[in-house]
Amino acid sequence: MLHGGGASPEHPGDYRLADAADAKGFVVVYPEGLNRSWNDGREISGRTADDVGFISALVDEMVHDYNVDPKRVYSTGISNGGYMSFTLACKLADKIAAVAPVAGSMSHFTLDACKPAKAVSVLMINGTGDPLVKFEGGPVRGRGDSEPITHVVEFWRKQECGNALVNATQLPDLDPRDGSTVKVESVACPGREVINYTIEGGGHTWPGGVQYLPKRMIGPVNRDLDASETIVDFFSHH
User: CA-CA distance, 98 to 227, in Å (whole number)?
Assistant: First the structure.
């Protein structure tokens, strides 16, 4: 579980990921990026750490010291941690079976350079009302750029499943007061999946999580989707 930029792993209970993981027998690891950030491939001044190497070494340690199954290692994270999860899918596919970035995207550079060594299943969650990582792409407040979410989705679909049929559904609007709804688009092919959750009206937030800053700053939290349970369930199938 990779924290967002400026955040830290000290308060992992906000998203209840550990609860969802415990229910299915997962170990959750909360690493900390240097200076509370990840060098996720965007060209951002001051970010020079070899975080791909760091995560690779961390995976090796977990396998060696804690008997973690090397074929069942996954990455999720929010914002900067979401960008970093995409980078791990690109550069560490030999150790990462699936990723689930939340409120994250890929820069033009990372997308163009992405050539995974093996197939990686991908689940994405992004809000159309995200004021930081904008759904339509563009600059991220002095922290590099991001590709439109639709471009990132299309890249992974073609990368993993070619021109396979897209299945689209709408989740029930369980909480009309949250100002958002959820559309799900999935593509499946032998051994892998690409699933995209579009939170219509959703913000720079973790669905089912906490409203960690006012809505006027980050947008609303969707209450129709429990992102933690959804992500852990997705990982359990890969």
Answer: 15
**CA max distance for the chain:** 47
Q: CATH class for domain 12-236?
A: alpha beta
| Strand ranges, E, within the chain | 74-78, 98-102, 121-127, 138-139, 145-146, 167-170, 181-189, 192-200
Q: Which residue has the tokens 């396998």?
A: 63
Q: Find where tokens 């308060």 sit.
A: 11
CA 133 from centroid of its chain's CA atoms: 12
Phi, psi dihedrals of residue 178, rounded to the nearest 5°: -80, -5
pTM of the model: 0.95
The residue extents of the domains of the chain are 12-236
Phi/psi at 146 (5° precision): -135, 145
Assigned token pair, 32: 């900390």
Q: What percent of the chain has pLDDT over 70?
A: 98
**DSSP label at residue 162:** T
pLDDT in tens, 15-35: 889 999 999 999 999 999 999
Encode pLDDT of 141-167 as tens digits: 767 889 999 999 999 999 888 888 999
- Name the average pLDDT for the chain: 94
Cα gap 142→176, rounded to integer Å: 34
